[in-house]
Amino acid sequence: MMSATMGITRSETKLFVRDPINLFFGLVFPALLLLALGLFFPGFDEPAADLDGARYIDVYSPIVLGLGIATLGLVTLPIILGTYRQFGILRRLRTTPVHPARLLWAQMIVHLVVAVVSALMAIIFARLVFDVPIPESPVWFVVAFLLAAASVFTIGLLVGAVARSTTSGQAIGMGIYFPMLFLAGVWIPRDLMPGGLRTVSDFTPLGAAVQALDDSWFGITPSFTHLAVMIAYTVVVGFVAVRVFRWE
Amino acid sequence: MPVIEVENLVKTYDGTNVVDGISFSVEEGEIFGIVGPNGAGKTTTVESVEGLRRPDGGSIRVLGLDPIRDRYQITQRVGAQLQESRLQDKITVGEALDLYASFYDDPADWRSFLDWLGLEGRVGTRYAKLSGGQKQRLAVALALVGSPEIAILDELTTGLDPKARRSVWDTIEQIRDDGVTVVLVTHFMEEAERLCDRIMVVDRGFVVAIDTPTGLIDRIGSEQRLRFRPSAPVDDAVLAELPEVTAVRRDGAQVEVVGTGNVVHAVTALLAQQRVIAEGLRIEQNSLEDAYLALTDQEITEEEG
Fold first, then answer.
1. C-beta atoms of B99 and A97 within 8 A
2. For position B268, which CATH number holds?
3. Which domain range does residue A181 map to?
4. Terminus of chain A with fewer CB atoms < 10 Å: N or C?
5. Which residues of chain A have a CB within 8 Å of the CB of B103?
6. What digits encode the pLDDT tens for the residues B4-59?
7. Nearest Cβ partner for B99 among A7, A19, A94
8. Nearest partner of B204 among B12, B9, B38, judged by Cα
9. Would you say residue A52 has pLDDT above 90?
C-alpha cells in the first residue's frame, strides 16, 4: 500500500503544480510580497522609532511566512478538498482498496512541502536583498514552523471536511483567512497592537505562529504559551476534523 | 452460480424507505440491467452492493462476501463507475490509469484497454479536454483496471449523444465477452434491451419485475402489427381467417393486420399465394419501452387505486 500512497502523493503534487494560481499564491507570493514591501515602502529596511529601533522588514519577515502558511492551509487546501468532494473524487476512491484518507495525507504532505519551499525562498530573498539574518535559533524555528503548518492545515482540513463544493470551501476558508491574517499582524504588526488585541492574537494559531517564528528568528526561545496554543489547535481541531469528515 | 445475492434490501432516508425490500441475484457472466424511474432506488441499491452504503435491513452477498465487513476484498474484486463522479481536470488519462492501477493487488495492463475503448492517442490528454464519451470510457477503464470479476456501471451513458452512447455499448459487450459480470443501471430502454441478459424493473423502492427483455415484452402481450398497401385487392375475411390473426383494419388503401405468434409469416405467405405484393410493409412490435411504461404505470395505478 506504500506504493499507493506514494502514487497519490506524486499525482497530487503534479496537479498542484499544474495550477498557476496555486503556484503563485502558495509558492512565490510570500517572497514577492516581502520584496515589494521592502522596495516600495520608504524606510521599510531602516530602523524605525515606533518599533524600538527594529526594522519593518525584520518584523514583516515572520509575518509573511505566516501569511504563506495561511494561504496554503486556509485557501488552497479547502478549495481542493471542496472540489474533490463536489466532483465525487473522494467517493470514487471509496470503491477502491485505497482509503480516501490517503488522499488527505497526500494533500497535507504536498502543502507542507510547498510551504517549506516557499518559506525558504522568502528567507533567502530577505537575506540577500534586505540583509535580514538567517533564523538564529534554527531548531526552534523549524519547530515553530512545523507547528504553525500543523495547526493552520488542520483548520483547513476541518473546513475541507464540511465544505460541499469548491465555492463553499473558498467562502468558509476566506472567512477564517482574513481575520487570522489581521490577528497575525499583516495590517498592524503585533508590536503596534493594543494590549487586548495582542492577547487575542496570542491565542490564535497564526498569531502564536508569527510570534514563535519571530522569536526564534532573532535568537529568542519561543514562549511556551505560543507553542502550546499551536499544539492545542492541532490536536483539538484535528480531532474534530476527523470526526466530522464525510467522504461525500 | 450467483455472484451477487440481495435479499430484502431496505434503505431508509429521513424515515422513508428509498429501497423497500428489494431481492435479486446476478449470475456469473451476465449483463444484469436495473431500470426504473428517477428516485426508484436504483443507485441506492447498487451503492449498497458496492459497500458505499450500509443497508438498514436485508442481506447482501457479493462473491460470497459481505460488502461492509469484507470491504477490502470487495473493492479488490468489484469495479465501479459512479453516477456523477469525475476526475481532476488536470490529470491525464495515463496518469489516472497508472494511479488507479497502483491501488490493486492484480492490476490489468491498462494499455491493452486503450484500443477498444477508443482512447488510443489520448494517454497524455487531460481529463478536462476529453469529450463526454471519452470521459465515460475512461470511467469504464478505471472500473476495470483492478481486473474485477464484477463491474457495476451506474448511468454510464446519461448525457451522451447517440453515437457516443452506441460506442459505449460496444465497450460493455466487450467487457462481458471478457468474462466480467456486468450490472448496468440505466434509464434508456433501448440500451437495456440491446445489452442486458436480464432486467430488473424497480419503482418506488420495489421490484416490479425481473425477466429477460423478451420476457418483459411478452408480459404486455406479444402482439404484432403489420401495415401494408396490397398491390391487388385482398379479401379482409380471408386474412381474418388465419389462426394467428386477431384483427384486420383498413385505413384508405392501407391494411393493418394485428396478430400474435407467427403472424408475419402467415400473412406474407397468404399474400404470396394470391400473388399480391405487400407494398410499404411495416411491422411493429411492442418494445421494452412499452413494457417498461406499462409495468411502472401499473404499479402507480395499483398504489393509487
1. no
2. 3.30.70
3. 2-244
4. N
5. 4, 7, 96-98
6. 999 999 999 988 889 999 999 999 999 999 999 888 999 999 999 999 999 999 99
7. A7
8. B38
9. no
